[in-house]
Structures are given as structure tokens and as C-alpha cells.
Fold this protein.
Amino acid sequence: MTSLPKAEVHLHLEGCFEAATIAQWAKAEGVTLPRPQEDLFKFSGLADFLGFLDLACGLACTTERLVALSYGLSQRLADNGTGYADVIFNPTHWHAWHGRLGAMLDAMDAGFKAAEQDGLPSVGLCVSLLRTQSADEAIELVDALRASRHPRVVALSVDGNEVTAGRTGPRFADAFRRAGDAGLRRTVHAGESSGPEGVWDAVNLLGADRIDHGVRAIEDAALVSLLAERQIPLGICPTSNLVLGVYPSIHEHPIENLRAAGVRVSVNTDDPALLGASLVGEYALCRQTFGWTDEVTRSVARTSIEASFASADVKTRLLQALKAW
Ligand code: ADE
Ligand code: ZN
């Protein structure tokens, strides 16, 4: 699957830490890890996982480390034959950078730029709110993005845990409206730790151009019809859903039923290093489990490119390569 031209649209910078890097940086900072290195990525569920992100991201406290992480993400894309990625990053997890969003964006941009100059794939940034933030904090972030107009930023995102946060669509509606008015695209984590109601709110209240996960939409036939009718794409991450306990096995995962119902689906890794996923592996898993033919595989890859927030030039190039695959 490495040769398949494709994009990735659901990938967190927070999920790209290698265990050895965390161990090395923790030692340098005098931070004690919660578990031995070999068990570091054993998570009991989404809440445990999100807590770990604070620890890992807290260690990326210098420009040099943030540049290295960003460059490493681009290298990971190239290793999987991924032509472009929308990368989510959530400022709340990066404690050393609080109050310095501009400097943080510049550091990531430097890593991605260096990668592009070395022939690695290009990247757009989706700056993310955490579900547990307040309406005022959300507006503050959007206003900062509107003021800086950083060329690397393509979208506003929201992620985090909808179980602890509750139904927060109304809380973020204003921020998402402002982002849309400023020309930012909108992508929303929903239907992972929330049921169909989270996906309804993403569509009706947050104006989502794309849903991250969205898999639990399968529990509501009217919602599945709406997603299919409006062609709102889902950025689905099968291995993540298994590791974080959304579904007990790949055979119970709804990606194929959603696809068969006419919903536009792509496959993605979410947090590849932490959850033990690779994009090539996700395609292989779906082909093996659901009997995806080359034609189905091509249509899913086409969705990944069309659903991305890449420039028109990048999309055209990748779609042409996909035709020839
Ligand atoms: N942040 C990183 N990965 C996430 C996930 N799977 N769900 C919610 N927030 C996240
Ligand atoms: Zn995610």
C-alpha cells in the first residue's frame, strides 16, 4: 500500500512521539515516567491517553525539539507513501509554550519547511481546541489565529474527550462560526467518545467540513443518510478505535457499513506512534478484513485527497497519480 497515492486527514502531532525520544527527554528534564519504557504506550482508554499527551508534549519544551518532532512526522508520511497531511495540533497539551502560540507555529513550520525542502510531503496545520475548554478560551484562540493568519494554518479543529466534557456543541458554535468567516476550514472530533448526537452537533452547530472519527454515526440511520447526502467526509482511524476501546474488534468496526451506505470515508492513523498504527497498515487491515478490492481502495484514497485541506495544485497532482495507480 506504500505505492498508493493518498493523503492523511486525521493525524495528531501529539501522537508522533517515539518511546525512546520521550525517555531521553524525560531523563534530560528530570521527569519521572509513569511506567517503564516498554509499557509506556499501554493505555486504559481515551482519558488515560489524553492525560499522557500532557506529559509527552510537556517535554517538547524547546524550539529544537518541536522542529525535530515536526520533521519526524513528515518523514513518517514519506515512509507510508502519503503525499499530503492535515496535521492536528492542540496547544493545550504543550505546557512550555502556553501564551506563545506564534512562536510555536513558527517552530512547527520550520520543521515542516525543512522537510519539504528535503523532498518530504507537505503539511497543513489544523489548530485544535480541547472539548473541556470554555467558550471564551475558544474565541480567544480563533481571534489569535485570525490576527496571525499564519500560512501553515488551514483549519480550526476540536478534539478531546466528549464524555468528560458533555454536550459542548453550543459552547463552541460561535468560535467555529468566526473561524469559518475568516476563511478557515472546520474539522470536528465527534462520534468517538460521543454517540450520534456529537456528530449531529458537529454538522448543525459547528459547520464541520469534515468529521474526525464520526464512526458512531452508524447508530442513527437518519444521520448516516444526512452524511451521505451532504457528502460530509469522515476521517476514520480503525486501529485507534480498537486500542482506545471504541470497538472490541475490527470485525465490529462500522467503516465498511458506513462506506456501503454512501458515506465518504478515509482511513487514518490518529496517533500513529502512541497507538502502534501506520497508514499502510490501516489500508492493509481494511483490505484484509472487509475484502476491499483495488477499486474500493482507490475510492477511499480518492476521498482522502478530496477531503483534505491541501491546495488545489497538490490535490490535482495526487489525484492524477492515483488514476495511474
Ligand atoms: N487527541 C489525540 N487523539 C485523540 C482522540 N483519538 N480523540 C480525542 N482527542 C484526541
Ligand atoms: Zn484524533
Observations:
- The chain has a mean pLDDT of 97.
- Residues 63-79 form the longest helix (17 residues).
- The first strand starts at residue 6 and ends at 12.
- The domain at 6-323 is CATH 3.20.20.140 (TIM Barrel).
